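Reviewers asked in the last cycle whether our approach scales beyond single polypeptides. To address this, we selected a multi-component target totalling 622 residues and predicted its structure end to end. The input consisted of the following lines:
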Amino acid sequence: MTDARPAPVVAVRPVRLRMRRPGAVTVLAVALPIGIFAALMVGSSNLTMTDALAALVGHADGSDAFVVRGLRLPRVVTAVAVGAALGASGVLLQGLLRNPLGSPDVMGVTAGASLAAVIAIGAAVPPLLLPLAAATGAGLATALLHLLTTRAGAGGTRIVLAGVGIHAAAYAAVTLVVARLPMGRLGAAEVWLAGSLHARNWTHATAVLVGLAVGLPAAFLLVRRLSVLELGDELAVGAGVALRRTRIQLLAVAAVLAGVAVAVAGPIGFVALGAPHIARRIVGPTSGVTLAAAAIIGALLVVAADVIGQRVFAPIALPAGMVTAVIGAPYLLWLLHRWGRR
Amino acid sequence: MNDLQPDPRLRADGLSVGYGRRMVLPAMGLTVPDGQITAIVGPNGCGKSTLLRALARVLAPVSGAVLLDGEPIHQLPSRTVARQVGLLPQSNVVPEQLTVAELVARGRYPHRGPFGRWTAQDQAAAEDAMHATGVEEFRDRPVDELSGGQRQRVWVAMVLAQETPILLLDEPTTYLDLAHRLEVLRLLRSLNDVRGVTVVMVLHDLDEASRYADHIVAMREGQVVAEGPPREVVTPDLVEQIFGVPCMTIPNPVTGSPLVVPLNPIHSGPALTGAARAAG
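The resulting structure, written as structure tokens, was:
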């Protein structure tokens, strides 16, 4: 019967697809470079727009060029990549779990990374291996989440409970490990646990960019399946989504994205939770555009949190993770409030 | 293979399905008649939804198989099956703010795959499905703001957009009022009449099943007790056998299909006595 119907050459009244507000996406795409540039201008020494631009493209004297290209640029690039990875990871996990709270920082993925990182700090592994440990922890926590929930066709609620459980257990273990750390390493652990972009260099930026280069395209390849999967397991099977495989792939990609982000910057909270929400409010439900928007919003949030943390109480610098926590807590409460009324 | 009658497209062969250790369907065989509407009926917990889920490959068999065109459905690529067999489950999730048109468009997934573009054919199928279910007028409204009846029609539209020759529906009329129940059943009837779509649905209401189905499968405790045309299957004996309700059947004055009328409903089962009522 499909073949019998003459296919119209030009689609009339297109089914409104994907892009609800193309203007909003454009605004986001413009906002990101502006945010990056602004972050390059401000710091312990503020530069004018022309000075920052000159330093960036290499026509400035030594000190400005060093500050902008040597210190601020790798830090901002790291912040952008970390935020984008967190935002994309949140979209995948929230869609898979069909729960607005189902982000890596609530579901124990970030906590698993933190636990692995403090253990690594305790074991005095070289700082360069810290990201690897954190990423492994994120992967293990995600694998545990999968194992606990894959049996008996676990629904969204059960997965969320399992995730909250993993989160609580991992953070309890973090506290235990930190309490037993020798004084000399306590500082390192606390700095890492706060979630900071302080002194991030091109090695960090490269690490998270590599993860993003793998994870983000993979996320885009999965997003259409996700948009069917979020309608219910049975419906998704009926529509031809290979349930088990898709779930594992989504968890794996979400773990890679959250893992590299946490590995490089520590547990920066709220971004993976909030960026997808904001993205959906602006561009609509799960789609490639939502994913792109969430990545950009995540990047903007982390860049902004880092700049705010550096400037608001200057010369005392707050870690970005603290700033996102301060912004995120009320947002979360508001979300719960709104959710409770539905 | 040389018979004049072509092999049925969908059938269950020695199918056993269970949840964990509890076996719900022990070794059953079922042939879905092509080009007809089949209604699966039976008391709560008799395994009718389980059977439908197994036919739709949502549940994997413990032994035996569901065969689509002779091939075990669980071993076929999921998207290949989804172009032949559509499923409307009992409960689905509506993402916040998803519009009707966007939801219906997702029904095109098996034809597009993870990367395919939105084609004119996808467009036509989605439009057609929205038109057939009468949800065009709220195409741009969020699904979560619609009434239960409207929402059910939207889900039906999504499954229709999948354009499958076989359609499985798990209690498609539950939670709907009389008018919307009739609307959904009439739509399925016309899909079958006009396009020859094979429909299998789980129904609670025997009278609805008798009226709208060509073929009735009556189940009890995981077994098919009887199957055939409504007039042969829906009899006082069978209704008593599977539901334990003594009844008589009379021809439906409009269609002639059997109508179930329970006997002595007050005195044959547990009921409040005057004393209990006074005490309560």
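Chain B touches chain A through 58 residues (CB under 8 Å). We regard this as preliminary and will revisit it once experimental data from Aim 1 are available.
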